[in-house]
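FAQ: What does the model actually see?

It sees only this:
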Amino acid sequence: MKASSDVRSTLTRARVRALRAALLAWFARERRDLPWRRTRDPYAIWISEAMLQQTRVETVVPYFERFLARLPDVGALANAPEDEVLALWSGLGYYSRARSLRRAAQELVTRHGGEFPRTRAGWLALPGVGPYTAGAVLSIAFAASEALVDGNVQRVFARLFGLELQHGSPALAAACWALAAELVPAPGEGHDPGQWNQALMELGARVCTPRAPACASCPLRSECRAQALGRAGELPLPKERRTPIAVELELAGVQHAGRWLLVRRPARGRMAGLLELPTRERAVLGSTRLWPADFPGAIELEEVELARVAHAITHHRIRATLRRATLAGPLPEAGLWATPAQCATLSLTGLTRKVLAGQGGA
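And it is asked to produce this:
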């Protein structure tokens, strides 16, 4: 493998111009019509980029549209209760992203008068904002000459430049950031940095895919080192796969007067503060405990099985069984009753929302 400095030395002005021309022409023809691509509003672009991290575009579109309809600007987000923000986010996972968005919005309002930063340092000073998000918002919203690197860009660069480095490794990330900085259009070069960055990500998402890349339709195939070597499917080098953790849960379906019993998760830890059906573990294979070991309060479980649901959270593969149950004692300290209509507006865990959707609620 060539060092990233050696690869960068091959980026002559003529080659950079050729790469940009080919990719941007392809993007102009093939780009998907996505709601956040119809605006230069930094707020909308910021929200979309937060949602798109580790989440499929098709999943994000309806969440993005609902979020913007309810919280259309940074002031609305800053003033929204945390539960409302989490409810709008429920089902996307990685709930720390939603909390960070709200904290950053509050900082933007209180310290910056609702104005968005125009520098990378300004963005990086906000809660939850990293180099990728800073580069994305600055280049797309403000046409700033700022690079970005995500998983798609790493895959494109690993193949395009023949980087024999492990997927997700610090070495590959460093090499790709260096290349991205060389390739992003500078002021006066006649290309929009935001369009270039989006084109790179689009190529990785739709053509230079993890498995079976569509090399025949790639606008950069004549420049691609991996294609020339017949190794497009091998790069970047695979990282060691973590063994999925099997989790079996029992959920208590306690209903009274058309309402479901929900309990709030602890303020710290996984899915902190979200609401869920009373839950206990039946088995956790290969991991330490993730959920409370037993139901809270005086819940009596019946044999009647209401549903079985499969769910996945990062490396955890969950099988959950919902059983009819009754509350034989006082309401648990963290408990509340909610109608199906109310459940739709509450900050539920993704598993709980999935289960209740099958029961005519949430």
